[in-house]
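Milestone M4 deliverable, item 7.
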Amino acid sequence: MSVSALVLLGAIAIAVLYGIVVYNNLVRLKHNIAKAWANIDVMLKQRHDELPKLVEVCRQYKQFEESTLTRVIEARSRVSDARAKQDVPALGQAEGMLRFGLGQLFAVAEAYPELKANEHFMQLQTRITALENGIADRREWFNESTNVHNIRIEQFPDLIIARLTGFTEQPLLEFSTAEKADVDLKALFSA
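Output delivered:
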């Protein structure tokens, strides 16, 4: 075998090995996104299970605003639908609506001293707040995993392997502008 044939064979072997390494790294990134999504999904399910309890405690106070409770229930349903479909953009919008509704619910509860003093309400409020914080942490990890994946499939030469093997850009989990505006208003009033 000639030297040029050996060099060509070596170059082909190196290119194939490099392609395998790139492909395996892309698979790892894809599974990191799936793992991050699964972690968000667990927290969303737990919060989904707590919200009816919170609504029921609030309904026990006859004068409590029914429209606020209805908004929370509708938003909960939308989050559940988006979660089941694994529709990240729809989940972001539904989450924004739910967070806005929960913010209103907790703000309205301030006007009801008996409700605010209710031990079950306080436990649920603490639990839901902890779940919200957990969702925020997991959302950050999901978005970081997604961002790393999206960058890798756009970088040369990884984009060649990504396109050949069907890797596509994944959406970030972003909450709606209504929720962001609500957070900004809360920050202004608490300062």
